[in-house]
Amino acid sequence: xxxxxxxxxxxxxxxxxxxxxxxxxxxxxQGAEPETTAGGVAVVSLAGEPGTLDPSTANTFTAxxxxxxxxxxxxxxxxxxxxxxxxxxxxxxxxxxGLTVDIALREGVTFNDGTPFDATAVKISLDxxxxxxxxxxxxxxxxxxxxxxxxxxTVRLTxxxxxxxxxxxxxxxxGAIMSPTALEELGDDFGSSPVCxxxxxxxxxxxxxxxxxxxxxxxxxxxxxxxxxxxYQFVTDANIRVANLRSGDINVAERxxxxxxxxxxxxxxxxxxxxxxIAYQSVSINVDPATxxxxxxxxxxxxxxxxxxxxxxxxxxxVFNGTNVVDCIPLPGQSAFRPDDVTCSEFDPEAARKILEDxxxxxxLAVELMYPSSPTAQKTVEVIQxxxxxxxxxxxxxxxxxxxxxxxxxxxxFEMFLIGWSGRIDPDGDVNDLVTSGGSNNFSRVSDPQLDxxxxxxxxxxxxxxxxxxxxxxxxxxxxxxPNIYLYHDSWFLGLSGITGVEYSSDAIPRFKTxxxxx
Amino acid sequence: xxxxxxxxxxxxxxxxxxxxxxxxIGARMLPGDPAQVLAGESADPAxxxxxxxxxxxNQPIWVQYFTYIGQALTGNLGVSTRDNIPVAxxxxxxxxxxxxxxxxxxxxxxxxxxxxxxVSAVKRGTFVDYVATGFGLVGLSVPSFWLGLxxxxxxxxxxxxxxxxxFVGFAEDPIGNLRGMILPATVLGxxxxxxxxxQTRAALLGQLSADYVRTARSKGVTRGREVxxxxxxxxxTVVTVLGLQLGALIGGAIVTEQIFVIxxxxxxxxxxxxxxxxPILQGAVLVAVTGYVLVNLLVDVAYAxxxxxxxxxxxxx
Lengths: 519, 317
Hints:
The complex is a heterodimer of chains A (519) and B (317). Chain A is of the alpha+beta class.
């Protein structure tokens, strides 16, 4: 009897434990406007590691997020991807021939180590971006042939060719200005303890795990900064980021999975911000007969059949709960250069089947689809596989670890490749190098002189309407060649708990300059 | 005994040398170019070459190895390719954290495992024995990532009594440090305790049925003294298993640190593999191997101390 009681007790305890584990702390959603507190340190959980924080060599999206706290740029982009001055005083003044660009600088600005910010500092940084052997900014600033100091608050850039995307480049890491004093002291180690102009100053780090920043006393706009500091943690697993958000251990979780949204939205104290990003996902088809013997490499019709077999809306619904923005061109909806009317081809399995039958190829037509192994990519390609197989393709899926997939992609060692691009605020960054001959990110290996010429011309024209017209021609040509089948622009979600005032726009970079903790 | 120890030390040094080669070649056998990782979305050939030049990746592999081993012998393990921070500095930052986690996990594993093993052996065939062996089975079967997520769900999200993640240095905040370590150490320790429980139970049952225990019992020795004698002789097996479990503990730490966001060795190794960060990967694995070899050396010595027949046979080999 005694033993039986113990068994009953243990069973009850285990059942209670499991029931509690399966339950959630319910909530009534968002309440009244929370009261904010002055000070405090916001804990932010990011999805990746930043690597170095040297703006000249940094290459990760996570580093771009952190730079918004510690390393401001000459320009920034607003929600409509329009340039706005940041460390510059106004928009760049371009000469009529497009070969000289004057940039007026903010006055009375100081780096976080007390060094004055002036035109000489800007020249030193831009020259470093252009000449450091390991600089990743060289290509971005390749059009600049000289940087000159006009006076303390003006720099003049001389260009070797007219280059409209320059402003956009200066709104990214190529426009980040570093403290000359810190550069002299730290040299190549600048990234381990960066000093720029920013609302927060670098304090310390546990390499690859977390970085701590404290409010800067030198920041020109410090009255708007309410937090005492920001701690960035790097947690690659989205489930863990969400668990930490729900427990209240962190204030911000980056890139929350779409599948977690329904539950998170019901929990008290948790707010979700959404960013319809400029990033896109596409299926690149290897169109180079030298590296792919698949019939799709040489037949635009077959590539079109593949596109017609895909129901983009269904992919979005099944894999992303309908949260992404379905699209068939690389330029995002926010871009001023996007054509006014974009008509994507409709899902038409009958038409796809007919093209395949008329092609004379043996059906089902086998094709291998390589993808970087991740749960989301896996789901995406499985949906694609099912749709394409329904019309007469025989799609084989090939998961490859991300870095290896990039290498295979660049070597042309694939037939089809599901790959994304983080997007750029200037349209040049969404097509140049991605669909131009020999481009390092031109995975499809498309090589078309007409397309190359249109992309080059669009980058050299300064008039917005003329550029927009040229990009429409670029997109039309891409559609005619069909080297890539664009699927959607990503939507990303930012989970907040105990914090307000976080800015989160279409570049999907959370900014904490005006953020404050809530009680 | 001295000869026995000397033999084990020489074996350990040879093991370490061979391990350094395996680690070095193993890291380079990973598909994917580290320069490509560092270059990110950019694949400018000039940039890739500059990165390879910076980290000596364009040299023949044997030149890279001897450069590496030459520097390592002077304590220079190179710099992290991701952020140029010296590997030794990063390892010194991370090692104490994992040692603390592993130490607490071992403590929890020992306390739960040996206690449950002894109780289970002494109360063999009773309800307590079934619960303890059931615990052993569950502890061995349940993957630590699931246990970790369950622990976070219960203790951090539902009851909010312990933090879900994060690490605070012991010197900075001892209470905060221990609060942050309880869940990960328990998750890590439970797997170990299950192994120790089963080993202790089996070894103790064997000893309790040995002739010398039966003789002692017939002479009227109390049950407590009987178990005490048998337990000491059972511990040789337990100590050996503990040493062997260190590898599993490091493997478990990789997962546990990832779940609880503890900036220890395990997380460092995972991140280094993903980033093809050879210097970090080599340094971390080499230090882990050194720790493993050292612990097993100590286990061998402890084993010889606990069982004199071992050192006699070891010495005459």
